[in-house]
Amino acid sequence: MERVYTIPLRNVKDIKRTIRAPRAIREIKIFLTKHMKASEVKIDESVNHVIWARGIQKIPSKITVKAVKDDDGVVTATLAE
Fold first, then answer.
1. Per-residue pLDDT tens for 65-81?
2. Are 80 and 16 in contact (CB under 8 A)?
3. CA 54 to each of CA 20, 39, 58, 73: distance values in angstroms, whole numbers, following the listed order
4. Which strands, in side-by-side order, build the sheet including 2-8?
5. What's the pTM?
6. 35-51: per-residue pLDDT in tens?
7. 8-state DSSP, 19
8. I want to staple 41 with a disulfide (CB 3.0 to 4.6 A). Which of 3, 14, 29, 52 is the partner?
């Protein structure tokens, strides 16, 4: 199964600025686990680079990812083009 999601990260900006980027990565995993009914979520390096591009404090307000679920229930998230 393959889907494209735009994941909102606005709520992550309400927490302490020194932990925003790691929290955004966790929120992406939580979002994909819930929406794809996955047992495990793997995030590609390109998504990580977009989150951390402007540092730990200034994360993007939303990100578009392509999620692919294989037969084992593992979801791989890559940056959507």
1. 999 999 999 999 999 98
2. no
3. 11, 31, 6, 32
4. 2-8, 62-69, 74-79, 40-43
5. 0.93
6. 999 999 999 999 999 99
7. G
8. 29
